[in-house]
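Researcher: Can you fold this with iron/sulfur cluster in place?
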Amino acid sequence: MEHLGVYIQVPFCGSKCSFCNFSSRVARQEVYDGYCQALFREIESLPDLYKSAGIEPRLDALPADTLYFGGGTPSLLGDERFSNIVARLRRRIAFASRMELTLEMTPGSAGRQFLMRSRALGVNRLSIGAQSFSDKELKAVGRLHSADDTRELIAEARSAGFSNISLDLIAGLPHQSQASWKSSLRSAMALRPEHISIYLFEIDEKSRLGGEVLRHGERYHARFVPDDDFMADAYERARAMLQAEGYRQYEISNFALPGFESAHNLKYWQLQPYIGLGAGAHSFDGECRWENDSAVEVYENSLMRGASPISGMRKLRNSEQIEEFFFLGLRQRDGVELEVARGRWGDRLLAPWLLKIEALENDGWLEQVGDRVRLADRALLVSNEIFQQFIAA
Ligand code: SF4
């Protein structure tokens, strides 16, 4: 039976990291209240909101088996607002009996009481933005927490009953050395989280740090950002160390102990349906993609005057669907099954893709075992370039 994923966007943070260009911001408690009111309206206007936008009514009928609170730092909402959101969701959407309910948080943003309340509400997975275990690196990018705060949060979470914890780490932060990166990886694994995500620091010109790096400026420790060779070594080191400790790489950036892969994120890579609620949240019903306005004020104003917060919608043509099938599916280490594409879009649409696969396989970027195609190990670090070639070829 098909299930739905539900994503709730909470665009607030305790501080703004210098490398971040997400639409998240530091705000007062009253702003959280206003946002939650709009979110309640959005939840309560389901399914009419989708029907009036011409979106498949079948989504209403699907029970959800994943719920993901992301952002931003959703734990900042506090337990009362959080439990209100969950209660309202439960009234509108059927929850499957086995449900993955993930909450993102940063160390220092959630205390014991919040952890216990969220566990009691059904949260069974925490995704913690640790980023590094070097206090110097954390401070350089404006994080409010220390490595000890991460350790403390995990200890509290374990004692509150959480048995599925994911940690995020970033390779390539300013001041990072191979030794400090190795030490962060060791510290993370010593805590034995069930899941670890490894992100490579990206120079985003719209972030404060990214802009300075591109301008060769000095602010935000810009001249201490490691180069691309460092990044490549750091990624390979992470893969080797994590895999040696039993963390299987199941996606370009994600590693998990067996059985602890993120069910919610797998939906994105496997073109399964999900709805996103909140400012800037994205949704997909299998054929159509749509998103809410990302400006918090516009999102709130639309909902409070009874209008739709949806700012864009696009029905994917078959040729675009098959492109997404490869583009997203190949992020997974298990790759994609050609039979699935054949069954869904037919031999005629698949034929040009088979030629592209053959060409990239001959160049050593893709590998095929039976009916499965996946990225070769050497393609992982340059996956974006390979995907570009694949789509353009
Ligand atoms: S906590 Fe996350 S979303 Fe918030 S500013 Fe930092 S990187 Fe961005």
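Model: Folded with iron/sulfur cluster in place. The mean pLDDT is 94.
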